[in-house]
Design a protein that fits this description.
Elements: H1 2-9, H2 12-33, H3 40-51, H4 61-82, H5 94-105, H6 108-128, H7 133-215, H8 220-248, H9 261-274, E1 278-284, H10 292-312, E2 318-325, E3 329-336, H11 352-362, E4 366-371, E5 377-384
Parallel strand pairs: 1-2
Antiparallel strand pairs: 2-3, 3-5, 4-5
Helix pairs in contact: 2-3, 3-4, 4-5, 4-6, 5-6, 5-7, 6-7, 7-8, 7-10, 7-11, 9-10, 10-11
InterPro entries: DUF7134, HATPase_C_sf, HATPase_dom, Sensor_HK_TwoCompSys, Sig_transdc_His_kin_sub3_dim/P
Domain DUF7134: 6-158
Domain Histidine kinase/HSP90-like ATPase: 296-385
């Protein structure tokens, strides 16, 4: 029964057709059970004319309301002309039904006009057909008032349902948008981590390979050392890649994230030194007790900046790394000797500076990069400590 009710709610014409059939059956029941001398054919004709239009009440509410009022008036006149045995049609209940329909589906203004018309119709019946004054007024007023109140209740219910549906649509849109943004952020995070690991290792290996190719004939020992450095760098990059993949499977704020800290910076400096970059590091404060996210951020900033120095600082590159741990923030500065070109996102198709800016933004920090008045390239980042 509940399924049928839900289905019927989605089929308004079928529901109205069943209502019309119900009114017609009530009319026929009165006709069959009446012992008065009703004019059978006339009664049946008006039973059909009064009830059939009800099936279209929600499709053509104004027209059906007018038709119902006219046909009801005509049936009263015809019944009165048929004689005293005529007592009216129960199907005249279509009048309050149409009042309800106008108020609920068209508006109060149209319903008010129709209510005035019904009042005129009731007064005309009292005057022309000598009906009981008190009974007729009470019954009609009660029926029309109930129709209006029911329509108002339905209108409020429909407005509530529409508002609820609108909120559900907005909530669904917000949910989809948040999911899409989360996917984009996660993809950016993965791309940033993989770039930092792979680009760093590959850049060092490329520099070492170029040096080996130049020295392979003139200085085989140096070429052999460069090849050994390439092998060590490749293994380290592979290990770092495995660690990064494992890291990406956890939350950025997870306690399982590795602490890079002082030992991590030392490894980066050692690797870059083997690649031919002269690196000096100055560290103030303890980096081993900060959050894993900040520790990783410092490590990646130094790693990416030194890689850029190695690639762009020209002959005999040199870099100075300063890391200062304070109570509220960690400040990282990386500068070169200013003999090469500026690192850019177009050089080698890389996104080093962009990746650093994104990482610092995620950590709610600030980053600046550019030439100083002395001609060297300076990267400076400040990462707040939660």
């Amino acid at each position: 029964m509940r399924r049928f009710s839900l289905w019927l709610r989605g089929q308004p014409f079928v529901a109205d057709a069943l209502l019309a059939v119900g009114l017609f059956l009530v009319d026929i029941l009165v006709f069959v059970s009446s012992s008065d001398g009703l004019n059978g054919p006339l009664f049946l004709v008006f039973s059909v004319v009064l009830t059939v239009p009800v099936a279209w009440r929600r499709r053509l509410p104004r027209s059906i309301a007018a038709v119902t009022l006219v046909t009801t008036t005509a049936s009263d006149i015809a019944g009165s002309m048929a004689g005293d045995a005529y007592n009216g049609h129960p199907a005249a209940l279509a009048l309050p039904i149409m009042l309800y329909t106008l108020v609920a589906y068209v508006g109060r203004a149209q319903g008010g006009v129709y209510a005035v018309a019904l009042a005129v119709y009731t007064a005309a019946n009292l005057f022309l057909f000598d009906q009981p004054l008190f009974t007729t007024l009470l019954f009609n007023a009660l029926m029309y008032a109930l129709s209006w109140v029911a329509a108002e209740f339905l209108g409020a219910r429909r407005a509530y349902d529409e508002a609820t549906q609108a909120r559900l649509v907005v909530a669904e849109y917000d949910r989809d948008r948040r999911a899409e943004e989360a996917v984009i952020m996660e993809r950016t995070r993965i791309a940033r981590e993989l770039h930092d690991v792979i680009a760093h290792g590959v850049s060092v290996m490329v520099v070492q390979a170029d040096g080996a190719s130049y020295a392979i004939r003139r200085n085989p020992e140096r070429a052999e050392q460069a090849v050994a450095n390439i092998s060590a760098t490749g293994r380290l990059a592979l290990s770092e890649l495995r660690r990064t993949v494992a890291l990406l499977r956890t939350s950025p704020d997870s306690d399982d994230m590795p602490q890079y800290g002082t030992a991590g910076l030392a490894r980066v400096v050692e690797m870059m030194g083997r690649a031919g970059l002269n690196v000096e590091i100055e560290q103030t404060g303890n980096l081993d007790d900060i959050s894993p996210a900040i520790s990783l951020g410092v490590h990646r900033l130094v790693q990416e900046s030194l890689t850029n120095v190695l690639r762009h600082a020209g002959h005999a590159p040199r870099a100075i790394v300063k890391v200062v741990r304070e109570d509220e923030a960690v400040t990282v500065e990386i500068s070169d000797n200013g003999t090469g070109s500026e690192p850019s996102s177009t050089a080698g198709g890389g996104h080093g500076l962009l990746g650093m800016r994104e990482r610092v933004a995620v950590l709610n920090g600030t980053l600046s990069a550019g030439r100083t008045p002395h001609g060297n390239w300076l990267v400076r980042a400040t990462l707040p400590i939660d």
